[in-house]
Design brief:
The protein contains 4 helices and no strands. By secondary structure, it is mostly helical.
Length: 126
């Protein structure tokens, strides 16, 4: 989705999911902010101002706050729950009327589940 992210993931043995999500958010924020700062973007000043403004209210933030708090984590403790969440995630852009078919949304793992190649390496759960 253009303004949020759905992620079904798990941490490897010996790792905490909270640390994985923390590191993911830190890495992606740095990469995206670097792109905004260096690539031609008509809304660059506006976006950076919004991220900087959000960061002023959090003492942990040095300059920009990219990700909102909190995460909406859901424990998926069965294959049925995992499949429900994956289907919900795939149908999100369809319900938002962005695409007609879930696999048409280019940033979705629905492409991988439909036998197409997406932008991210996805481990398909069946």
């Amino acid at each position: 989705m253009s303004n949020h992210l759905h992620l079904v993931c798990r941490a490897k043995e010996g790792f905490k999911i909270s640390n994985v999500i923390r590191d993911f958010k830190k890495f992606t924020a740095k990469q995206i902010l670097r792109k905004i700062e260096t690539e031609p973007e008509s809304r660059k000043d506006w976006m950076l101002y919004r991220f900087e403004y959000a960061g002023k209210f959090d003492n942990r933030i040095k300059k920009y706050k990219f990700w909102q708090e909190p995460n909406h984590a859901v424990l998926l403790d069965s294959n049925e729950m995992i499949n429900q969440r994956i289907n919900y995630t795939h149908e999100n852009p369809v319900k938002a009327l962005i695409v007609f078919n879930a696999e048409d949304y280019i940033f979705s793992s629905a492409r991988d589940y439909a036998g197409e190649r997406g932008y991210v390496n996805v481990h398909v759960v069946k």
